Amino acid sequence: MAGDFVKHKKDSDMMSVWSYFLVAKDGNSAKCKRCPSILKTLGGSTKGLHTHLSTKHNIKVISASTSQDTENLNTAPPPAKRKLDDYFTKTKSDDDNLDDVLARMIALDGFPFSVFITSDNLRKLLLAKYTDLPKSAVTIQKRVMNYSEK
Description:
- This protein has 6 helices and 4 strands, in the order E-E-E-E-H-H-H-H-H-H.
- It is an alpha+beta fold.
- A hairpin with a 5-residue loop joins strand 3 and strand 4 (about 40).
- Helix 3 packs across helix 6 (about 135-150).
- Keywords: Metal-binding, Zinc, Zinc-finger.
- It comes from Eumeta variegata (Bagworm moth).
């Protein structure tokens, strides 16, 4: 089996993951030089090799593409991540808007439409402030969908 693996052309480059592996003659797998592990490299992918070195041997190899990505990150600020609640309107009257409350509870808190119908306690709580609470899950779904289009 050892004869089926040969040195990769980048074997002498210590910045290459291939300095830690032998490549199979067919190019579809690699054998770790530090342990008996054999890993797949189908299509030339080295992600598994990097992961193996990192998790099994605590070795990080910084490839040219990784260092290029790092350079790009240093020159340009990362795009701002948007939160789900950024898509909701924020006005002073939001506390008085049933559609906004329903949409937030469904989208942000993960409530199903039906819980507003089946939960007596939730209905009592909402009815204390909102007299127009729908009586069907389909109606609540329509109101939330209409609200999302605004």
